[in-house]
From TrEMBL:
Gene Ontology terms, MF aspect: 1-phosphofructokinase activity; ATP binding; tagatose-6-phosphate kinase activity
Organism of this sequence: Lacticaseibacillus brantae DSM 23927
InterPro entries: 1-PFruKinase, Carboh/pur_kinase_PfkB_CS, PfkB_dom, Ribokinase-like, Tagatose/fructose_Pkinase
E.C. no: 2.7.1.144
Name of the featured protein: Tagatose-6-phosphate kinase
Transmembrane segments: none
A Pfam cross-reference name: PfkB
Pathway stated in the Swiss-Prot or TrEMBL entry: Carbohydrate metabolism; D-tagatose 6-phosphate degradation; D-glyceraldehyde 3-phosphate and glycerone phosphate from D-tagatose 6-phosphate: step 1/2
Keyword tRNA-binding: no
Classification lineage: Bacteria, Bacillati, Bacillota, Bacilli, Lactobacillales
Protein's UniProt keywords contain Cell wall biogenesis/degradation: no
Enzyme class, first EC level, given as a word: transferase
Gene Ontology biological process terms in this record: carbohydrate catabolic process; D-tagatose 6-phosphate catabolic process; lactose metabolic process; small molecule metabolic process
Entry-linked CDD domains: FruK_PfkB_like (cd01164)
Residues covered by the Carbohydrate kinase PfkB domain: 7-286
Length: 304
């Protein structure tokens, strides 16, 4: 089972308009409400891949109820911890550019935190917990790291979608996979932007040396890399019209984690990861099973 943890879910209010003029009344051309939050996106992609998943995290109020209802319509199993405050609403504004307005999120009480931690008692050996997204108010910065021993004591693996020092701090605990993009990788090591794949591979290997079990590096339209101690592969991304970058990284992480948990085949998992990321990039919402399959058949993986 792959559990996603979304401590700060959101309704994503996706609004489209041709031109945005700040300081004026702007009329929208279209709008849609989607259940959002990085862990929830991971679970939605796992569901599309027909892999077993349960979404955990904090949910509350009328906004939380909307998310629970939408996930029930998708037949996606959830075991959220109910909170008193309202789950947040994030605005995704699609005009000439994509602009995201993400709210800080609700206040979480000590009792709610304890109830959430109790959910981890159900973990079993072989499970994977994917923790992704920001922390709502009331949680210490160390919250994700504090969960790692609770996950490991059940023999389960973990993935944390984070960057910077927070990412480096998790490596000694051997995350199943890390997936920085190439800009984040350079920032991690205080390097200037990389100008060759060799430089990215060398930096990616440092993450393995520091403890990561698998390293993927995404490079948006330039494809992605999978790096092991002695080999590296480049995966192409298909040409296509990018409709949406919200959730592309979450989709990639879901594709790798879900496929690896069921096959233990890193290369096959890498291909599905790219397919999920690109299929979401080419869709208005997260990718569907059909889109993932269509995109997967066009991806070429080459050993460097
Ligand atoms: N222009 C593109 N064409 C095709 N696929 C793309 C494109 N941009 C992104 N993707 C897909 O999305 C994946 C993740 O993209 P990216 O490198 O932008 O990661 P990220 O920065 O973590 O994403 P996010 O914007 O979700 O944080 C890529 O590996 C790829 O599969
Ligand atoms: O504010 P956070 O938790 O960092 O990110 C939240 C979020 O932007 O991430 C998802 C896309 O990755 C969206 O569904 C959601 O609105």
């Amino acid at each position: 089972m792959i559990y996603s943890v979304t401590l700060n879910p959101s309704i994503d209010y996706v609004v489209g308009l041709n031109n945005l003029t700040l300081g004026r009344v702007n009329r929208l051309d279209n709008s849609v409400l989607l259940p959002g939050g990085k862990g929830i996106n991971v679970s939605r992609i796992l569901k599309a891949l027909d892999l077993p998943t349960t979404a955990l995290g904090f949910i509350g109020g009328f906004t939380g109820q909307f998310i629970t209802d939408q996930l029930a319509k998708l037949d996606l199993p959830c075991a959220f911890t109910e909170i008193h405050d309202n789950t947040r609403i994030n605005v995704k504004l699609k005009a000439e550019d994509e602009t995201e307005l993400n709210a800080p999120g609700p206040q979480i009480s000590a009792e709610e935190i304890a109830a959430f931690k109790g959910q981890l008692d159900q973990l079993q050996s072989g499970d994977v917990v994917v923790m992704a997204g920001s922390l709502p108010n009331g949680l210490p910065e160390s919250f994700y790291r504090d969960l790692i021993p609770l996950i490991h004591e059940h023999g389960a693996d973990f993935v944390i979608d984070t960057t910077g020092q927070a990412l480096l701090d998790t490596l000694p605990d051997h995350p199943l996979v890390v997936k920085p993009n190439h800009h984040e990788l350079a920032e991690l090591f205080g390097d200037p932007e990389y100008t060759s794949l060799d430089e990215i591979v060398t930096a990616g290997r440092k993450l393995l040396d520091l403890g990561a079990q698998h390293v993927l590096v995404s490079m948006a339209g330039a494809g992605a890399l999978m790096i092991t101690a002695d080999k590296a592969w480049h995966g192409t991304v298909p040409a296509g019209k990018v409709q949406n970058s919200v959730g592309a990284g979450d989709s990639m992480l879901a594709g790798f984690t879900g496929t690896f948990a069921t096959t233990h085949d890193p290369l096959a998992s890498f291909q599905v990861a790219i397919a999920c990321g690109s299929a979401t990039a080419f869709s208005t919402d997260l990718a569907s099973a059909a889109k993932i399959a269509e995109v997967k058949s066009t991806i070429t993986i080459t050993e460097l």
